[in-house]
UniProtKB/TrEMBL annotation:
Statement: the UniProt record of this protein carries the keyword Heme: no
Gene3D superfamilies in UniProt: Homeodomain-like (1.10.10.60), Tetracycline Repressor, domain 2 (1.10.357.10)
Keyword Transcription regulation: yes
Protein name in the entry: AcrR family transcriptional regulator
Keyword entries, A-Z: DNA-binding, Transcription, Transcription regulation
Residue ranges of domain HTH tetR-type in the record: 32-92
InterPro entries named among the record's database cross-references: Homeodomain-like_sf (IPR009057), HTH-type_TetR-like_transc_reg (IPR050109), HTH_TetR (IPR001647), MftR_C (IPR041347), Tet_transcr_reg_TetR-rel_C_sf (IPR036271)
DNA-binding span(s): 55-74
Native source organism of the sequence: Paenibacillus eucommiae
Alphabetical list of SUPFAM superfamilies matching this protein: Homeodomain-like, Tetracyclin repressor-like, C-terminal domain
Biased composition range(s): Polar residues: 1-18
Length: 214
């Protein structure tokens, strides 16, 4: 819902972004903490009973919240795996990228900065979520819808930086290409869980930047 090393300027910008990210407010931190806790309990239940057999009521009970509270954070069971809180951080990181970078370089630097800042626990959770998403047909369909929304967000970011409209074909093509790289990395990561997802994104976006040489 979810998610690149480039030339030296981008790598340098990643290091500066880490200290430049805005600190979330108390409400945002509480929401993120609750969502992360629910996702952790849901993953444990999915692991124990299987995704299909696990109900929203079971997840809520295990997380010690009511079903109505669950639906305040996630509108469906699928969203427990699809939804995350990284979009605002990606936008902030993108806006902090140096002005001399191209839109693609800026997107790449912003994505890499988010991956660099993830804890070992967050990375482990992401790995497990990714494997489930790729294995369960309805989850894979749901993540495609989520990636479409992310593509629109990236198009808005790029359009603002480039002084163009979000529905400009060139802007949408760039945003779509970035999402394509992300999805291909997710597929590879699901099949090769020992791989490093950040490195996969780095390599994929570097190939995109180089014109996709084969």
């Amino acid at each position: 819902m979810s998610s690149n090393s480039k030339s030296n300027p981008a790598i340098q910008s990643v290091q500066s972004i880490r200290s430049a990210k805005p600190t979330p407010g108390l409400r945002e931190r509480k929401k993120a903490k609750t969502m992360a806790a629910v996702q952790m309990h849901a993953l444990r239940l999915f692991r124990e009973f299987g995704y299909q057999a696990t109900t929203v009521e079971q997840i809520a009970e295990t997380a010690e919240i009511s079903p109505s509270t669950f639906f305040r954070y996630f509108s469906t069971k699928e969203e427990v795996l699809i939804t995350d809180n990284y979009d605002p951080l990606l936008i902030a990181a993108f806006e902090e990228q140096p002005s001399h970078l191209s839109p693609l370089q800026a997107v790449k630097g912003a994505i890499l900065s988010g991956m660099t800042d993830m804890s070992a626990e967050e990375l482990a959770t992401m790995r497990e979520r990714n494997q489930l998403i790729m294995m369960v047909p309805e989850l894979r369909a749901a993540v495609l819808n989520n990636l479409t929304q992310t593509m629109e967000m990236i198009a808005e970011m790029v359009a603002k930086r480039a002084g163009r409209k979000p529905d400009d074909l060139a802007v949408r093509t760039l945003a779509g290409a970035v999402i394509g790289v992300n999805f291909s990395a997710m597929l590879y990561y699901a099949e090769n869980p020992d791989a490093d997802f950040s490195s996969l994104l780095d390599e994929g976006l570097s190939q995109l930047e180089a014109g996709l040489p084969l």
